[in-house]
Amino acid sequence: MKTVVCFSGGMDSTVLLYHLIAGGHSVKAISVDYGQRHRKELESAKSISQSLKIDHRILDLAGVGTLLKGSALTDRSVTVPRAEYDEQSLKVTVVPNRNMIFLSIAASWALSSGWDSIAIASHGGDRALYPDCRSEFLDAMRKALNLSDWNNLELLSPFTGLSKAEICKLGSELGVPFEKTWSCYEGGPAHCGSCGTCRERRSAFKECGLLDPAPYHKM
Amino acid sequence: MKTVVCFSGGMDSTVLLYHLIAGGHSVKAISVDYGQRHRKELESAKSISQSLKIDHRILDLAGVGTLLKGSALTDRSVTVPRAEYDEQSLKVTVVPNRNMIFLSIAASWALSSGWDSIAIASHGGDRALYPDCRSEFLDAMRKALNLSDWNNLELLSPFTGLSKAEICKLGSELGVPFEKTWSCYEGGPAHCGSCGTCRERRSAFKECGLLDPAPYHKM
Lengths: 219, 219
Known about the structure:
Two copies of one chain form a homodimer.
Chain A: E1 2-6, H1 11-22, E2 26-33, H2 40-52, E3 56-60, H3 62-67, H4 87-90, H5 98-113, E4 117-119, H6 135-147, E5 154-156, H7 164-173, H8 196-207
Parallel strand pairs in A: 1-2, 1-4, 2-3, 4-5
Helix pairs in contact in A: 1-7, 7-8
């Protein structure tokens, strides 16, 4: 199969990339720059793609960022939640409809290249917080993508049934260079260790008994 | 209702805008610049929005255009079909997955603004050529958009059951300034009159017995 992968440079989509390559897929990767507060994830995506020698594009969607208000990922006037780690404080990091935008553009690239599938790393652990990570959403998108073109484009989402810890374990078996992946919402020289996504990452590694090789600030 | 309208500056989406305003909707309009061969449609969209005094944004998605190959709308090495007006020659003008990209970004803007709906002017006459104008596609998107966020976003597509001639008639009743709308794939000073979309436009006006006030080249 020839598969365009939605690739953020974080650990989940990096494992997805390695998983598909191990499964015999030809892959191309696409990242989206929608005016994030920092470019650490995009730099990770670029570096990982280069080491895998795969075609990787970063699409500039900063214009979309300017349409969005009230998201900590694009709006510097909103503080990244840190002290209170609960669902309410994490919700500020949601870019509305982000996955649909990402999938629709990956699909356009796949279709115009004559490729047969796209893939996204949404997983079980994202469900509670992000509506567009739910399998119901992905099933609806699967149908829409299938109807959007005369060529039936497939949407692969092999991690929907997995927890982040299970993805971490799979990545470890596949030899994923986790030290190159970036998760932290803050753009410091190392992972802050205390924002929502750092906490999720740390507990995933802890749960499967692995050491996270990524650099962290001393806490 | 508060509705973000996918607005190309062509006759169908201009009639949609007037139709929603007449129906009491608050509207904002969004256009997409994906590196089209010419900007006449975008200029029309801007001018019509200004005269209606509505919020209108043109989103620069030229980066998406660079991903696409083989489309006459973005690739200057492909000739716009003219002499042979049949389905095969028109297919070259299809940008894959264009409507999904457009809808997904309109939805992001609506959701981040706290608005409750988006609208698109897809209609019956587009069905045969464009897979992403079919009502089946729009129904799948309706479901995906509903699941993409905790707030249920509605997708309005009131023209799916209408022909282009019926849209033309409706626009005439609503006082749409058709002379400001742009349809031609070519970017000349006037409509060429012979490309696929010019022919569709001319037969729509002819079918409902109206004169098209838009300028045409002498043929």
